[in-house]
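Private note to self, pasted from the team thread so I don't lose it. Backbone tokens:
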């Protein structure tokens, strides 16, 4: 709020646009940083996919199989934090991609989570590109931030997931 107050009109507009997420990145230096962070996280996730599968079944089962759950969680938390920090610092917060895509891919492929890492990685990017295409071509006076488009998809999907969870819990 202080930033909005002390900034001029153009800066305030830029801050608001950034908080809605945008793929309008100036220069490839930022793009390379996001790509490096994404592939680093993908590599770490693929490295620990066996452990993740066991942890997803149950903590007890993973512990009995010799998985150091705390260590794995800390490693993954570290790399996820780095990747999210780099991505958000470049494009701003773009909501619902991490919620919608894994659930949709799980519904389509019906496989264990460790086999869905690459499809989720790929289709998450495809989803962002499609949302960006929609945001740029809606014919409005100014480009709609991509976070607004992902919210139109993610908001109803989130409500659907909540309703589905309530119905399954009876």
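Design output:
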């Amino acid at each position: 709020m202080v930033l909005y107050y002390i900034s001029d009109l153009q800066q305030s507009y830029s801050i608001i646009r950034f908080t809605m997420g945008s793929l309008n990145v100036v220069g490839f230096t930022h793009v390379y940083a996001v790509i490096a962070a994404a592939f680093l996280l993908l590599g770490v996730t693929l490295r620990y996919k066996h452990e993740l599968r066991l942890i997803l079944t149950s903590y007890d089962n993973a512990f009995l199989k010799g998985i150091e759950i705390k260590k794995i969680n800390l490693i993954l938390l570290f790399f996820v934090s780095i990747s999210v920090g780099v991505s958000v610092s470049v494009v701003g917060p773009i909501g619902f991609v991490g919620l919608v895509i894994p659930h949709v891919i799980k519904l389509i492929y019906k496989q264990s989570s460790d086999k869905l890492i690459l499809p989720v990685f790929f289709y998450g990017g495809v989803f962002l590109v499609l949302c960006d295409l929609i945001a740029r071509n809606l014919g409005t006076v100014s480009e709609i931030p991509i976070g607004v488009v992902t919210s139109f998809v993610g908001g109803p999907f989130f409500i659907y997931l909540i309703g589905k969870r309530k119905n399954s819990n009876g």
